[in-house]
Amino acid sequence: MGKKKDKAKAKKAKDEQSKKLAKAERKAQEKAEKKARDKAKRKAADKAKAKASDKAKAKSKAKSGDRADAKTKGSGRSLTELLRVGPEFSLAKLDPASTPGFSGDEDDATPLMESMQEAIGELQERLYAEGKAGGARSFLLVIQGMDTSGKGGIMRHVVGAFDPQGVDLTSFKAPTKEERAHPFLWRIRNALPTAGRIGVFDRSQYEDVLIVRVHDLVPRAQWARRYGQINAFERSVAAGGTTIVKVMLHISKDEQKARLGERLARPDKYWKFNPGDIDERGHWAAYQEAYEAALTKCSTDDAPWFVVPADNKWYARYAVTRLVLEALQGMDPQWPAATFDVAEQQKRLAESD
Question: What distances in angstroms separate CA 70 from CA 75, 104, 116, 177, one per listed residue?
Protein backbone atom coordinates (compact mmCIF):
# COMPACT_ATOMS: atom_id res chain seq x y z
CA MET A 1 0.00 0.00 0.00
CA GLY A 2 2.84 2.39 0.86
CA LYS A 3 4.50 1.62 -2.44
CA LYS A 4 1.33 2.46 -4.32
CA LYS A 5 1.08 5.78 -2.54
CA ASP A 6 4.68 6.69 -3.30
CA LYS A 7 4.20 5.78 -6.95
CA ALA A 8 1.09 7.94 -7.24
CA LYS A 9 2.86 10.77 -5.50
CA ALA A 10 5.82 10.53 -7.85
CA LYS A 11 3.50 10.47 -10.87
CA LYS A 12 1.67 13.53 -9.57
CA ALA A 13 4.96 15.37 -9.07
CA LYS A 14 6.10 14.40 -12.55
CA ASP A 15 2.83 15.64 -14.06
CA GLU A 16 3.13 18.90 -12.19
CA GLN A 17 6.72 19.25 -13.39
CA SER A 18 5.60 18.59 -16.98
CA LYS A 19 2.86 21.17 -16.64
CA LYS A 20 5.33 23.72 -15.26
CA LEU A 21 7.76 22.96 -18.10
CA ALA A 22 5.02 23.24 -20.71
CA LYS A 23 3.88 26.53 -19.16
CA ALA A 24 7.43 27.85 -19.18
CA GLU A 25 7.86 26.82 -22.81
CA ARG A 26 4.60 28.55 -23.76
CA LYS A 27 5.73 31.71 -21.99
CA ALA A 28 9.11 31.55 -23.71
CA GLN A 29 7.42 31.00 -27.07
CA GLU A 30 5.01 33.88 -26.46
CA LYS A 31 7.91 36.08 -25.41
CA ALA A 32 9.88 35.16 -28.53
CA GLU A 33 6.86 35.77 -30.76
CA LYS A 34 6.22 39.15 -29.10
CA LYS A 35 9.88 40.07 -29.54
CA ALA A 36 9.72 39.09 -33.23
CA ARG A 37 6.52 41.13 -33.69
CA ASP A 38 8.06 44.15 -31.98
CA LYS A 39 11.18 43.83 -34.13
CA ALA A 40 9.08 43.59 -37.30
CA LYS A 41 7.09 46.64 -36.22
CA ARG A 42 10.27 48.63 -35.53
CA LYS A 43 11.74 47.54 -38.87
CA ALA A 44 8.57 48.55 -40.69
CA ALA A 45 8.51 51.87 -38.86
CA ASP A 46 12.19 52.53 -39.67
CA LYS A 47 11.58 51.61 -43.30
CA ALA A 48 8.58 53.92 -43.49
CA LYS A 49 10.58 56.69 -41.82
CA ALA A 50 13.52 56.20 -44.22
CA LYS A 51 11.15 56.16 -47.19
CA ALA A 52 9.51 59.38 -46.01
CA SER A 53 12.94 60.94 -45.48
CA ASP A 54 14.12 59.87 -48.95
CA LYS A 55 10.91 61.20 -50.45
CA ALA A 56 11.38 64.53 -48.66
CA LYS A 57 15.00 64.72 -49.82
CA ALA A 58 14.04 63.86 -53.39
CA LYS A 59 11.29 66.48 -53.30
CA SER A 60 13.70 69.06 -51.92
CA LYS A 61 16.33 68.15 -54.52
CA ALA A 62 13.73 68.31 -57.28
CA LYS A 63 12.61 71.74 -56.11
CA SER A 64 16.21 72.88 -55.93
CA GLY A 65 16.82 71.47 -59.39
CA ASP A 66 13.67 73.16 -60.71
CA ARG A 67 14.83 76.49 -59.29
CA ALA A 68 18.26 76.06 -60.83
CA ASP A 69 16.83 74.83 -64.12
CA ALA A 70 14.63 77.91 -64.28
CA LYS A 71 17.81 79.98 -64.31
CA THR A 72 18.76 78.40 -67.64
CA LYS A 73 15.51 79.33 -69.35
CA GLY A 74 14.64 82.46 -71.23
CA SER A 75 16.75 82.30 -74.34
CA GLY A 76 15.25 78.99 -75.47
CA ARG A 77 18.67 78.08 -76.90
CA SER A 78 21.23 75.49 -75.88
CA LEU A 79 24.73 76.50 -74.87
CA THR A 80 25.89 74.78 -78.06
CA GLU A 81 24.04 77.51 -79.94
CA LEU A 82 24.81 80.38 -77.57
CA LEU A 83 28.56 79.86 -77.23
CA ARG A 84 29.43 78.66 -80.72
CA VAL A 85 31.80 80.85 -82.72
CA GLY A 86 30.19 82.10 -85.91
CA PRO A 87 31.42 84.18 -88.87
CA GLU A 88 30.73 87.49 -87.10
CA PHE A 89 32.30 86.51 -83.79
CA SER A 90 34.37 89.11 -81.91
CA LEU A 91 36.35 88.04 -78.85
CA ALA A 92 36.58 91.63 -77.62
CA LYS A 93 32.79 91.92 -77.52
CA LEU A 94 32.29 88.91 -75.27
CA ASP A 95 32.35 89.87 -71.58
CA PRO A 96 34.57 87.34 -69.70
CA ALA A 97 32.47 87.92 -66.56
CA SER A 98 29.15 87.15 -68.27
CA THR A 99 27.17 83.92 -67.85
CA PRO A 100 25.36 83.32 -71.17
CA GLY A 101 22.32 81.07 -70.89
CA PHE A 102 22.33 81.14 -67.08
CA SER A 103 20.84 83.83 -64.85
CA GLY A 104 21.59 82.23 -61.48
CA ASP A 105 24.67 81.89 -59.30
CA GLU A 106 26.95 79.08 -58.14
CA ASP A 107 24.37 77.72 -55.68
CA ASP A 108 21.87 77.41 -58.50
CA ALA A 109 24.39 75.70 -60.79
CA THR A 110 25.54 73.06 -58.30
CA PRO A 111 22.49 70.73 -58.46
CA LEU A 112 22.46 71.03 -62.24
CA MET A 113 26.13 70.07 -62.40
CA GLU A 114 25.41 66.93 -60.38
CA SER A 115 22.51 65.82 -62.58
CA MET A 116 24.44 66.58 -65.78
CA GLN A 117 27.43 64.56 -64.57
CA GLU A 118 25.17 61.59 -63.88
CA ALA A 119 23.76 61.81 -67.40
CA ILE A 120 27.26 62.14 -68.88
CA GLY A 121 28.34 59.04 -66.97
CA GLU A 122 25.64 56.91 -68.58
CA LEU A 123 26.30 58.33 -72.06
CA GLN A 124 30.03 57.64 -71.65
CA GLU A 125 29.33 54.04 -70.67
CA ARG A 126 27.03 53.60 -73.66
CA LEU A 127 29.71 55.02 -75.97
CA TYR A 128 32.31 52.70 -74.44
CA ALA A 129 30.02 49.68 -74.85
CA GLU A 130 29.29 50.72 -78.43
CA GLY A 131 33.02 50.78 -79.15
CA LYS A 132 33.53 47.37 -77.55
CA ALA A 133 30.82 45.99 -79.83
CA GLY A 134 32.60 47.20 -82.97
CA GLY A 135 31.40 50.83 -83.22
CA ALA A 136 33.84 53.38 -84.62
CA ARG A 137 32.74 56.54 -82.83
CA SER A 138 34.68 58.49 -80.19
CA PHE A 139 34.59 61.93 -78.56
CA LEU A 140 37.29 64.61 -78.32
CA LEU A 141 37.23 67.62 -76.00
CA VAL A 142 39.84 70.31 -76.67
CA ILE A 143 40.52 72.92 -73.94
CA GLN A 144 42.49 76.12 -74.67
CA GLY A 145 42.91 79.33 -72.72
CA MET A 146 45.33 81.89 -71.39
CA ASP A 147 47.36 81.10 -68.27
CA THR A 148 45.11 80.90 -65.14
CA SER A 149 41.97 80.67 -67.29
CA GLY A 150 40.87 77.57 -65.39
CA LYS A 151 42.00 74.64 -67.53
CA GLY A 152 43.08 72.74 -64.40
CA GLY A 153 39.65 73.27 -62.83
CA ILE A 154 37.98 71.90 -65.93
CA MET A 155 40.18 68.80 -65.73
CA ARG A 156 39.24 68.25 -62.07
CA HIS A 157 35.56 69.17 -62.05
CA VAL A 158 34.43 68.25 -65.57
CA VAL A 159 36.82 65.62 -66.89
CA GLY A 160 37.06 64.22 -63.35
CA ALA A 161 33.40 63.20 -63.59
CA PHE A 162 34.20 60.71 -66.37
CA ASP A 163 35.04 57.07 -65.70
CA PRO A 164 38.86 57.25 -65.97
CA GLN A 165 38.95 53.82 -67.64
CA GLY A 166 37.40 55.30 -70.76
CA VAL A 167 39.32 58.60 -70.93
CA ASP A 168 42.62 59.52 -72.60
CA LEU A 169 43.95 62.86 -71.26
CA THR A 170 46.86 64.49 -73.06
CA SER A 171 48.56 67.69 -71.90
CA PHE A 172 50.57 69.23 -74.72
CA LYS A 173 53.69 71.07 -73.63
CA ALA A 174 56.53 72.47 -75.74
CA PRO A 175 57.31 69.84 -78.42
CA THR A 176 60.13 67.40 -77.71
CA LYS A 177 63.09 66.88 -80.02
CA GLU A 178 61.36 63.86 -81.55
CA GLU A 179 58.12 65.79 -82.05
CA ARG A 180 59.94 68.68 -83.70
CA ALA A 181 61.38 66.20 -86.21
CA HIS A 182 57.83 65.53 -87.51
CA PRO A 183 55.06 67.75 -88.95
CA PHE A 184 53.28 69.71 -86.20
CA LEU A 185 50.14 67.52 -86.35
CA TRP A 186 52.06 64.27 -85.85
CA ARG A 187 51.89 64.30 -82.06
CA ILE A 188 48.23 65.35 -82.16
CA ARG A 189 47.28 62.46 -84.42
CA ASN A 190 49.05 60.02 -82.10
CA ALA A 191 46.91 61.18 -79.16
CA LEU A 192 43.48 60.88 -80.80
CA PRO A 193 40.92 58.74 -78.95
CA THR A 194 40.16 55.28 -80.30
CA ALA A 195 36.67 53.82 -80.78
CA GLY A 196 34.40 54.11 -77.76
CA ARG A 197 36.75 56.38 -75.82
CA ILE A 198 36.78 60.02 -74.77
CA GLY A 199 39.89 62.05 -75.52
CA VAL A 200 40.74 65.29 -73.73
CA PHE A 201 43.42 67.71 -74.95
CA ASP A 202 44.82 70.20 -72.43
CA ARG A 203 46.16 72.60 -75.07
CA SER A 204 46.38 71.24 -78.58
CA GLN A 205 47.37 71.77 -82.22
CA TYR A 206 46.29 75.39 -81.74
CA GLU A 207 49.48 76.17 -79.83
CA ASP A 208 51.08 76.09 -83.30
CA VAL A 209 49.03 79.13 -84.37
CA LEU A 210 49.03 80.85 -80.96
CA ILE A 211 52.35 80.92 -79.10
CA VAL A 212 54.18 80.18 -82.35
CA ARG A 213 52.52 83.18 -83.97
CA VAL A 214 52.90 85.55 -81.01
CA HIS A 215 56.61 84.79 -80.55
CA ASP A 216 57.52 84.41 -84.24
CA LEU A 217 58.83 80.89 -83.69
CA VAL A 218 58.38 80.04 -87.35
CA PRO A 219 58.02 82.23 -90.46
CA ARG A 220 54.63 83.91 -90.93
CA ALA A 221 53.99 82.03 -94.17
CA GLN A 222 54.42 78.75 -92.29
CA TRP A 223 52.03 79.40 -89.43
CA ALA A 224 49.55 81.06 -91.79
CA ARG A 225 49.24 77.78 -93.75
CA ARG A 226 48.42 75.89 -90.58
CA TYR A 227 44.82 77.10 -90.30
CA GLY A 228 43.93 75.27 -93.48
CA GLN A 229 45.99 72.24 -92.45
CA ILE A 230 44.20 72.10 -89.09
CA ASN A 231 40.80 72.33 -90.77
CA ALA A 232 41.66 69.50 -93.16
CA PHE A 233 43.00 67.40 -90.29
CA GLU A 234 39.91 67.93 -88.14
CA ARG A 235 37.65 67.20 -91.11
CA SER A 236 39.35 63.80 -91.57
CA VAL A 237 39.13 63.06 -87.82
CA ALA A 238 35.40 63.84 -87.79
CA ALA A 239 34.87 61.71 -90.90
CA GLY A 240 36.46 58.83 -89.01
CA GLY A 241 33.72 58.99 -86.37
CA THR A 242 35.09 61.40 -83.76
CA THR A 243 32.84 64.18 -82.44
CA ILE A 244 35.02 67.22 -81.71
CA VAL A 245 34.19 69.96 -79.19
CA LYS A 246 36.75 72.77 -78.87
CA VAL A 247 36.50 75.17 -75.93
CA MET A 248 38.37 78.41 -75.33
CA LEU A 249 38.19 79.65 -71.73
CA HIS A 250 37.94 83.43 -72.05
CA ILE A 251 39.44 85.27 -69.07
CA SER A 252 39.97 89.02 -68.63
CA LYS A 253 43.40 90.53 -68.09
CA ASP A 254 42.33 91.92 -64.69
CA GLU A 255 41.07 88.53 -63.52
CA GLN A 256 44.29 86.88 -64.64
CA LYS A 257 46.26 89.42 -62.60
CA ALA A 258 44.12 88.67 -59.54
CA ARG A 259 44.64 84.91 -59.90
CA LEU A 260 48.39 85.31 -60.34
CA GLY A 261 48.38 87.52 -57.24
CA GLU A 262 46.59 84.79 -55.29
CA ARG A 263 49.26 82.28 -56.30
CA LEU A 264 51.96 84.61 -55.02
CA ALA A 265 50.08 85.25 -51.77
CA ARG A 266 49.59 81.59 -50.83
CA PRO A 267 52.45 79.16 -50.13
CA ASP A 268 50.24 76.26 -51.21
CA LYS A 269 49.91 77.92 -54.65
CA TYR A 270 53.58 78.73 -55.28
CA TRP A 271 53.99 75.50 -57.25
CA LYS A 272 51.42 76.76 -59.77
CA PHE A 273 53.20 80.07 -60.34
CA ASN A 274 55.55 80.51 -63.27
CA PRO A 275 57.48 83.82 -63.52
CA GLY A 276 57.11 83.49 -67.28
CA ASP A 277 53.36 84.05 -66.90
CA ILE A 278 54.05 87.71 -66.09
CA ASP A 279 56.24 87.99 -69.18
CA GLU A 280 53.40 86.55 -71.29
CA ARG A 281 51.02 89.23 -69.98
CA GLY A 282 53.10 91.71 -71.94
CA HIS A 283 51.83 89.98 -75.12
CA TRP A 284 48.17 90.04 -74.10
CA ALA A 285 46.92 91.99 -77.13
CA ALA A 286 48.89 89.76 -79.51
CA TYR A 287 47.41 86.65 -77.91
CA GLN A 288 43.88 88.01 -78.18
CA GLU A 289 44.47 88.70 -81.87
CA ALA A 290 45.92 85.21 -82.39
CA TYR A 291 43.02 83.59 -80.57
CA GLU A 292 40.42 85.45 -82.58
CA ALA A 293 42.10 84.38 -85.82
CA ALA A 294 42.18 80.73 -84.71
CA LEU A 295 38.59 80.85 -83.52
CA THR A 296 37.11 82.43 -86.62
CA LYS A 297 39.24 80.59 -89.19
CA CYS A 298 38.85 77.15 -87.58
CA SER A 299 35.29 77.01 -86.26
CA THR A 300 33.68 74.59 -88.71
CA ASP A 301 30.70 72.25 -88.80
CA ASP A 302 33.11 69.35 -88.35
CA ALA A 303 34.91 70.91 -85.36
CA PRO A 304 33.17 73.99 -83.93
CA TRP A 305 34.76 76.36 -81.45
CA PHE A 306 32.91 77.44 -78.30
CA VAL A 307 34.07 80.41 -76.23
CA VAL A 308 33.20 80.15 -72.53
CA PRO A 309 33.45 83.29 -70.35
CA ALA A 310 35.77 82.20 -67.53
CA ASP A 311 36.07 85.01 -64.99
CA ASN A 312 33.55 83.05 -62.91
CA LYS A 313 35.11 79.64 -62.40
CA TRP A 314 31.81 78.01 -61.45
CA TYR A 315 30.16 79.18 -64.67
CA ALA A 316 33.04 77.94 -66.84
CA ARG A 317 32.77 74.48 -65.26
CA TYR A 318 29.00 74.47 -65.62
CA ALA A 319 29.17 75.60 -69.25
CA VAL A 320 31.80 73.07 -70.33
CA THR A 321 29.88 70.29 -68.59
CA ARG A 322 26.74 71.29 -70.43
CA LEU A 323 28.53 71.54 -73.79
CA VAL A 324 29.90 68.02 -73.28
CA LEU A 325 26.46 66.72 -72.29
CA GLU A 326 24.75 68.31 -75.29
CA ALA A 327 27.38 66.87 -77.64
CA LEU A 328 27.08 63.36 -76.20
CA GLN A 329 23.28 63.60 -76.33
CA GLY A 330 23.62 64.54 -79.98
CA MET A 331 25.74 61.43 -80.55
CA ASP A 332 23.12 59.34 -78.71
CA PRO A 333 25.24 56.19 -78.29
CA GLN A 334 23.20 53.01 -77.87
CA TRP A 335 23.63 49.87 -75.80
CA PRO A 336 24.75 47.12 -78.18
CA ALA A 337 22.33 44.26 -78.77
CA ALA A 338 23.15 40.82 -77.33
CA THR A 339 25.16 38.55 -79.61
CA PHE A 340 23.67 35.44 -77.93
CA ASP A 341 20.24 33.98 -77.18
CA VAL A 342 19.29 35.71 -73.92
CA ALA A 343 16.51 33.25 -73.01
CA GLU A 344 18.79 30.28 -73.61
CA GLN A 345 21.53 31.72 -71.40
CA GLN A 346 19.01 32.55 -68.66
CA LYS A 347 17.84 28.93 -68.72
CA ARG A 348 21.42 27.64 -68.58
CA LEU A 349 22.16 29.90 -65.63
CA ALA A 350 19.05 28.74 -63.76
CA GLU A 351 20.04 25.09 -64.29
CA SER A 352 23.65 25.59 -63.22
CA ASP A 353 24.86 24.73 -59.70
Answer: 11, 9, 15, 52
For residues 117 and 324, give the distance between their C-alpha atoms in angstroms, rounded to a whole number: 10
Which one, of 51, 31, 27, lies nearest residue 39 by Cα?
A: 31
One-letter amino acid at 333 equals P
Can you tell me the distance from the alpha carbon of 165 to that of 220, in angstroms, rounded to the nearest whole number? 41
> Residue 252's CB: how many other CB atoms inside 10 A?
17
Which residues of the chain are modeled with pLDDT < 70? 1-33, 35-36, 39-40, 43-76
The residues, ordered by sequence, that sit 6+ positions from 157 with a Cβ below 8 Å of its Cβ are 113, 317, 321
Instruction: Assign residue 338 a region (left: φ > 0; alpha: ψ between -120 and 50; beta: otherwise).
Output: beta
Backbone angles phi, psi at 22, to 5 degrees: -65, -40
Q: Which amino acid is at 332?
A: D
Distance of CA 92 to the CA centre of its chain: 30
Closest by Cα among 251, 222, 239, 273 to 137: 239
pTM metric for this prediction = 0.78
- Give CA–CA dist 128/197, Å, rounded: 6
Distance CA 295, CA 307 (A): 9
